[in-house]
Amino acid sequence: MKMEINPLLMSLMCMSICVSLVSSVRFDELFQPSWASDHVVFEGEVLKLKLDSYSGSGFESKSKYLFGRTTVQIKLVQGDSAGTVTAFYMSSDGPKHHEFDFEFLGNTTGEPYSVQTNVYVNGVGNREERLSLWFDPSQDFHAYSILWNQHQVVFMVDQTPIRVFSNKEHKGVAYPKDQPMGVYSSIWNADDWATQGGRVKTNWAHAPFVASYKGFEIDGCDCPVTTTAVENAVKCSSTGERKYWWDEPMMSELSLHQSHQLMWVRANHMIYDYCTDVSRFPVFPVECDHRR
Ligand SMILES: *[C@@H]1O[C@H](CO)[C@@H](O)[C@H](O)[C@H]1NC(C)=O
């Protein structure tokens, strides 16, 4: 007797296998330690970055990417994290580099973390925003993502957008779209500025400070170091038959639901917005048109 295989069952099996393959991508397929590899340790499926009085630590993607989305799940330093900064970011190389930053600023036990985001274009940053979160990020893993396409850079926390840097080239604002970027994370001592404006220092008696990671994902257009800028630009643009999902029309701006989420975050969790800092920017930054 011939065995009949139900095609629906086949596709269901494939779906579950394919999905689990994607979500279980191992750290070392995408990333490698970049700094103090003895402070970068695996415990089961969880990667830990440690900071003590000798050193901080960090990891970086093996490749660089032009557009796409990266997500990691992070559980931040528990208890006393004052003076520490844990960063998750994308960056290109060189003096005119682009950079998209999440910086988690620690605090004394029981006091809330803040999340600072920043965007550098052609080497120029000074676009800090600071938020509180609607949960304690040291209690559990939460997903932090950066989506980047021709139209926008979106910072997301558990899929809720907390910041959008839109392409405003039509208003003369430079937009990052020409340099492949790597994905990075690190933990270091920043007690000169991080916690309560630098007033609270790192208490080394509480070291090591440990940030935990899992769920590493990068879904982007891979740009190996051996390819030229022109080749990358061609390879990573959606033309003709080839369409990257992040170039679909619906990815060029937030959905209505997402814009409501963003409005809620800004109304309830904003601590600092460079766009409204008149003493620092007497001349209104052009990209801030809607916020003063
Ligand atoms: C730390 O806690 C204080 C007091 O609740 C708060 O004002 C501050 O924004 C928190 N975050 C940082 C990074 O200092």
UniProtKB/TrEMBL annotation:
Boundaries of every GH16 domain copy: 1-213
E.C. number: 2.4.1.207
Gene Ontology CC annotations of this record: apoplast
Signal peptide start-end: 1-24
A GO MF label: xyloglucan:xyloglucosyl transferase activity
Positions bearing carbohydrate: N107
Domain of life of the organism encoding this protein: Eukaryota
Post-translational modification: Contains at least one intrachain disulfide bond essential for its enzymatic activity.
One Gene Ontology term from the biological process aspect of the record: cell wall biogenesis
Entry keyword set: Apoplast, Cell wall, Cell wall biogenesis/degradation, Disulfide bond, Glycosidase, Hydrolase, Secreted, Signal, Transferase
Location of the protein in the cell: Secreted, Cell wall; Secreted, Extracellular space, Apoplast
Root EC class: transferase
Principal location: secreted
PANTHER family to which the protein is assigned, alphabetical: XYLOGLUCAN ENDOTRANSGLUCOSYLASE/HYDROLASE PROTEIN 8-RELATED
Recorded family membership: Belongs to the glycosyl hydrolase 16 family.
Function text: Catalyzes xyloglucan endohydrolysis (XEH) and/or endotransglycosylation (XET). Cleaves and religates xyloglucan polymers, an essential constituent of the primary cell wall, and thereby participates in cell wall construction of growing tissues.
Protein name per Swiss-Prot or TrEMBL: Xyloglucan endotransglucosylase/hydrolase
Source species taxonomy: Eukaryota, Viridiplantae, Streptophyta, Embryophyta, Tracheophyta
